[in-house]
Input
Amino acid sequence: MSSHDLLVLWTQLAALLLAARVLGAAAGRLGQPAVVGELVAGLLLGPSVLGHAWPEGFRWLFPGRGSSGPLAAITAISLAVLLVSIGAETDLGLIRRLGRAATSVTSVGFAVPLVAGGALALALPRALRGQHGTAAPFVILVAGAVAVSSLPVIAKIVTDLGILRRNVGQLAIASGTVHDALGFVLVALASSLAGGGSAGAVAAALGGVAGVSLFVLTAGQRVIDFWLRHARRRGPDLAASLTVSAAAGLLAAAAMQAFGVEGALGAFVAGIALGRSRFQLGRAITVIDTTTATVFAPLYFATAGLRVDLGTIGEPAVALSFVALTAVAVASKFAAGAAGAALARLPRREVLALGVALNGRGALQVVIATAGLGLGVLTTGSYTAVILMSIVASLSVPPLLRASLSGWAGSPEEQERLDREEQLERNVIVRGDRLLLATRGSRSSIVAAEVLAAAWPEDTPATVVSVGDTAEGESAVRAILGVLGERRTEHRRLESQQVTDEILAEANLGYGVIGLGASDEPSGGHLLSPVLDDLLLRSPLPMVIVRRPRLADGRLPDAFSTIVVPVSGTPPSRAGQEIACSIGRTLGTRVVLVHVVTRTDSSDRVLAMTGTGSGAAPSPQRRRLEQAEGAAEVVLRGAWETAVEMGVEPEVVGLQGRSAGDGILSAAADAGADVVALGTTVRQVEGRPFLGHTVEQVLARSEATVIVVALPEHSARLGAVMTEAGV
Output
C-alpha cells in the first residue's frame, strides 16, 4: 500500500467509526438498537448523502464504495470478531430448557416467513437479480432475509427493555440463536449454488458446515477447554484467555472458508465453544464484547451502510420491491411467531410479545445482503431494499414490545423464578458459580457436602477433589457424590503431595467457593489443620468450612433441625445468613437470627427491642444502652427482612453479654440448635490465619455442627462497598 492508500484507509476508519458510534448512541437514546444508527451512519457517508452532497470528497474517501481491498479485509475481520462475540453469548442449553415452547416458536417462526419470502422472491422483477443471480440462490437469500431474526438486535432490545430473563425474552433469544445459525446455512447454500456448484459441490459445502461445526463443538471444545484451563492454572490470565479465544475464532473461520463457506460462520461456532467452556475467563468475554460493541460492530455495520444507495429507491421496481419485502417480512414474522407461541399454549400477552420480538432484524440481514452483493446474486437495488427492510422492521419492535407487555409481570411461576434469580444476584456467596469441594475422606467433608447441597441451587455444578486413595477416602467420596445428588458433578483425585498448591490451582479455574471439612480436634498449634490454615491464608475465593457435630458415637447428622446465625450487618455476616436461610428454605430448617451487644458488667440478658420505657432523664450509661438497643434493632430488622426475601420466616433474638461468643453459644443452647453458621473475614496475624475471637470460641466450645464462611479481605471490602451502594 502506498502512503496515499494508507492515508485514505486511516481516514475511512476514523470517519466510519466516529459516525457509527455517535449515531449508534443517538439510536439508543431513542429506544432503538445501536445497529440502526450504525447502518444509518454508513448511509450518510455513502452515495445517498455524502456522494450526492460532495461527490469529489466521497470519491476520495471511498474510491471503491467500501469494497476496496484494505477496508474489505478489515470488514471481514470485524464480522468474524462480531460473530465470536455473538456465539459466546449463545446458550444452546437454553433451547433445551425451554423445551416445547422454544421448539414451537423457533420452528414455526422460521418456516412460515421462509416460505413467504421464497414466494415473494419468485415474484420480484428479474432486474433485481445480480449478474450471477439465478433463481435458486436469489430465492434462498431473499427468503433467508425475510425468515431470519437477528440475535444481536433481539438481545439488545430485550436487554434495554429489562426483559432478558423473562420467559418472553428467553424464548426470543433462543429463536434468534437458531435463526442465526440457519441464516448462515442458507448463505453457505446460496454461495455454493451461485458459484455454479453441482449437487455434489453443494452437498460438500453443507457437509463442510456440519463437519466443522460438529468438530469445533466436540473435539475442538476439548482442545479449547485444555488451553483455557492451562491459561488459568496460575490465576486469571486475561491476555492468555484472549489469545486462545482469538486463535480459536481464526482457525475455525479458516476451516469453514476452506469448504468455500463464509468463514464468519466458523467464528460464530468457535464463539459458542468459547462461551460454553467453564474455564473461560469472564473478563475475556467482557473485553471481546466491549471491543466488539465499540469498534468492530460499528465498523462492520457502517461499512454495510456505505453500499446502500437510496437513489435506487426512486426506481419503481426497487421501491415496490422494498414495500412488498417489508410488508411480507413484518406480517409473516409476526403471524408465525404468535402462532408458534399459541401452539405452545403460552399466555396471550406472551403470544403477542413474541410475534413482535421476532421482527428484530439487522445483523444477519446485513450478512445475507452483503454476501449476496459480493456473489453477484443481488444488485445494489435489491441490497438496498433488504437493508432498509431490516431497519424499518427493527424500528417498530421496541415500542410495540413495550406496549404488549405493559402492566403484565408474567405468570406466578415466572415471577417466582425472577425473584429467585434477583436474590442470587444480590447475594454475597450463595450464587450460581461452580462449587469446589476438597476432601481427605473426613466425616466433616461429608457434612460440608450436605451444607453445599442444601444451600446452593440444584443446577449449580460441583467438582469434588479428593486427596489420597485410602478405603476411608473412597467411601467418603462415594458418600459426597451421593449427597450432591442430581447436580452436574465431576470427581478429580490429586496425586501431588503439594495439596494446597493443587487445590488453589484448581480454584483458579472458575469457581465461586471452596468447601472443606474441618478436623474435629486440631493439633500442633493450628487453628483448623495445616492444609486448611494454609488455604485460609492463600485462597482468593470464599471458603465454607464445616466441622461436624461432636457426638459421642461419631454419627453424622440425619438433618439440620435448627440453625443459629449471628448477624451484625456486615458482608461476612450476610454470607453466613445466606447459607443458613438457603438451608432453611430447602430443608425446612428453623432459623434463629441472633445479635449480641457486648457489655462490660457480668450480667447477660435479653434486649428489650421496644426501648427502655423510662421517662426520667437518661444517665450516660442508660443513653449508651438506648443507642445500642436502637442499633441492634436496626441490624435485626434488616436481617429479618433479608431472610423473608429469601423465603424464610426466622426467629429473632437480641442479647447483651460479656462477649459475642458467649451470647451465641447461649442462644444456641436455648434454641436447641444443631447448627451454628458464622461469617467472618480472614486476617493474617504473625503468619497464621485469624478468624476472630468469636469464631474461634464457637469452634472450640460448640457441640453442634459449625459452619464458618470465611471471606478473603478483598472480598469482604467489595461486599461492604456493594452493601453501601444498595447492590
Summary: The domain at 3-406 is CATH 1.20.1530.20 (Na+/H+ antiporter like fold). Residues 607-628, 716-727 have pLDDT under 50 and may be disordered.
